[in-house]
Amino acid sequence: MADWGAMGMVSVNRDDGIWIVKLTGEQDFTTVRELRITLDALFTPEMRPHTGPTLVVVDLTHCQFFDSSVAHVIVRAHEVAQRHPKAYMAVAVGGRSRESFATRTLRLMGVTQLLPTFTSRQAAATALAEISTAKAPEVQ
Looking at domain 9-134, which CATH architecture does it have? Predict the structure, then answer.
C-alpha cells in the first residue's frame, strides 16, 4: 500500500494578539482554497481590531510539502496586508540547523525576496510585534 503522506490541515488561532495560520502535512490544490479563505478573512474589516494592528504569521514549520498554488496564496495575502496601514504578515519556515523544505521551496520560487521569513513561529511573531510597534503612530 502506498504512503501518500500526511493529509494537509489548515488551522488558525490567536496567540497574544497575533493570528497564527498553521499549515501541517501536505498542502496543495486540495487545501489551497481553505488557506485562501482563511487568510482573506483575517484581513477583512470585521476581523481586524479597531485599535491595534492585524498581525499574521503563516506557520510552515510542520508542513511537509506545498506546491506553487499555496505559495501564490501566501504572497497574495502578503500583498493584501501591505495595502492596509496596520496589517503585517510574516512566514515561519523552520530549519534551524539546515535549510527546511519550506525555506528551500520559497527561495527557489523567489518568495523569500518578497516577504519576511523566519526560522520559527516565535521569531516571526516577535518581529511582527516589533515592526507594528515601531510603525504605530504616537499617541498624543
Answer: 2-Layer Sandwich (3.30)
| pTM for this model (two decimals) | 0.87
Which of 43, 44, 51, 57 lies closest to 14 in space, CA to CA? 57
For residue range 31-57, what is the model confidence (pLDDT) as tens digits?
A: 999 999 999 999 887 766 666 788 999
Note the helical H segments in 43-112. Answer: 68-83, 101-109
And the C-alpha cell for 33? 482554497
Reading the block at residue 90, the C-alpha cell is 510574516
Backbone angles phi, psi at 33, to 5 degrees: -65, -45
Element (H, E) at 122: helix 121-135
Cell of 82: 501591505
